[in-house]
Write a structure and sequence with these properties.
six-stranded parallel sheet; Rossmann fold; globular; 363 residues; 2 domains
């Protein structure tokens, strides 16, 4: 259960990217897979009644597949909110039918919800505990599963994101970072939502535009796209900032190849796919120290880590990349090596195979 939209569907996001990579990997050769798409049909989401009807159809389809195919295990990708309710109930239904499941929360917002909204804690624990195995994007997710949800350690498995694909790594291998570049090219890839830090990024650009030459490309769409465009226009940033809309496939690979520094100042994250893609393509990375990022990435080695919602820290990090080309090249090289070693599809397949074995043996 995850992001498996039909070919040509304009559905984007981290779960879709991860699921597509998994289906096209050795994982699909090792196991017989039955896919059920649970992506929302638009962003922003459709009205509640539409979502309820679509969720009901999915649930009935899921129930039929459980009864007819009797799978050895179920893999449930989930985010927060309605997605967690849906996947959590699917986990409990599978358990009642004697089918063990693995739940794989994505992003970092769910952990924030748990800590900040006390009234949700019981329901979050209940929904997640329907699964037999808790899959973790990194160490912080594993601590969350054990310490707060109550999973025994042996029923957790760390599976790092796997979006360092061969075509992206090839871009990084072939990249020649110029010694000097009068205009550093920054890149943001992601949903245009306030919590992605898009306005902190634009505020930093407004300050930098007074003293430096640079270019920023914003790739993505979302609820604050129009507001972000209006901000750029009001601050006279048109010569510095451009919007490309949502980009995927070969066009996204080309976009990475034409930029120097990736910037993602999110308020919350798990471990972002776009960051891994940028590292694979040998871009230097500026990212906030949230979610699993500080557990896996060392500040000043594989990336520059900054506090979230901190415009001044973001500005300083961007200035460092402009004024210190050797530092930029060093970050890019170390990040590329990390992508090769930790974030390939093959590494994730090995971890998922281990998790499936645990799930079946514990049933």
């Amino acid at each position: 259960m995850g992001g498996f939209p039909p070919e040509g569907a304009k559905v984007y996001g981290g779960i879709v990217t991860s699921c597509r990579a998994l289906v096209n990997s050795q994982f699909a050769e090792i196991f017989q897979l039955e896919l059920l798409d649970t992506t929302q049909i638009s962003n922003p989401p459709p009205m509640f009644l539409v979502r309820l009807v679509l969720a009901s159809r999915r649930f009935m389809n899921y129930l039929v597949k459980l009864i007819i195919f009797r799978p050895d295990t179920v893999l449930l990708f989930t985010s927060r909110g309605a997605s967690l309710v849906e996947k959590g109930m699917m986990a409990w239904v599978a358990r009642c039918l004697g089918v063990p499941s693995m739940i794989f929360p994505r992003g970092g917002a769910l952990m924030v919800d748990y800590d900040e909204q006390k009234w949700q804690q019981f329901w979050i624990r209940f929904l997640l505990k329907g699964a037999k195995i808790f899959l973790c994007q990194g160490p912080s997710w594993q601590r969350f599963a054990i310490d707060k949800i109550g999973f025994p350690q042996q029923q957790t498995e760390v599976v790092l994101n796997w979006t360092a694909t061969s075509d992206l790594l090839l871009v990084g291998t072939q990249r020649k970072v110029e010694e000097t570049n009068p205009e550093i090219r920054f890149l943001f890839v992601g949903w245009l939502e306030r919590e992605k830090g898009i306005f902190e990024l634009l505020e930093a650009c407004a300050a930098l535009a007074k003293e430096r030459k640079f270019l920023l490309t914003i790739a993505g769409r979302g609820r604050v796209e129009r507001e972000a465009m209006e901000y750029v226009k009001s601050k006279g940033l048109d010569q510095h900032v451009s919007f490309s809309g949502w980009v995927e496939g070969a066009s996204l690979v080309e976009l990475y190849s034409k930029h120097d520094v990736f910037v993602l100042p999110s308020w919350t994250e798990g471990f972002p796919n776009s960051m891994i893609e940028a590292m694979a393509c040998k871009l230097a990375v500026i990212v906030t120290d949230v979610g699993n990022i500080p557990d896996l990435v060392s500040d000043g080695e594989q990336a520059l880590l900054i506090p979230s919602r901190n415009v001044e820290a973001l500005k300083r990090a961007m200035l460092l990349m402009m004024d210190n080309p050797s530092a930029m090249r060093g970050l890019a090289q170390c990040g590329h090596l990390m992508a090769i070693e930790k974030f390939s599809v093959g590494k994730a397949v090995d971890s998922l195979v281990t998790a499936v074995g645990k799930c079946i043996n514990l049933s």
